[in-house]
């Protein structure tokens, strides 16, 4: 990637929608589905341990729904971030794989929610098939998160340029840049 294309990948397509330069919205939005889906898996497992698992089964299902809504919001903003990356670059290919895995996980959780719909009233623990689907989905989500980290920390997508980052390491916080 050329220095010019790297700078373009660090700038938002729309600061209003994707977040201002150096402060993208996508990383904060992804915490909602990650937290909801990991907690739903914990509740699924716990439903096999407690005496009356109905409340865990019901809570898990609604956490899945919250995660799906959060994932769709994060995907919209993430898609804008993907547009800032020049096509044909390793960062763009990584972004496509990251997006594809996240869409597959979201689709799996939509299926999981529909599969569970209405079953929590029985008061039983989560079925093994549903538990396995959640566990596999969280595992794929982890791989996708690794790729998201690679986009930010290795390729610098939506991260401040090196000069701006250097300001944080200047004694007294004074800028080393010349004003433009």
How does this structure look, described?
The protein has 180 residues and is mostly helical. The protein contains 8 helices and no strands. α4 runs antiparallel to α5 (54-83), α4 packs antiparallel against α7 and α5 packs antiparallel against α6 (90-116). The chain is elongated, with a radius of gyration of 20 Å. The two termini are 25 Å apart.
Give me some keywords for this one.
180 residues; mainly alpha
List the helices and strands and how they pair.
Elements: H1 3-10, H2 15-18, H3 26-29, H4 31-46, H5 54-83, H6 90-116, H7 128-154, H8 162-166
Helix pairs in contact: 4-5, 4-7, 5-6, 6-7
Cα(first) to Cα(last) distance is: 25 Å
Mean pLDDT: 84
Shape: elongated
Structural class: mainly alpha
Question: What is the structure about, briefly put?
Answer:
With 180 residues, the chain is mainly α.
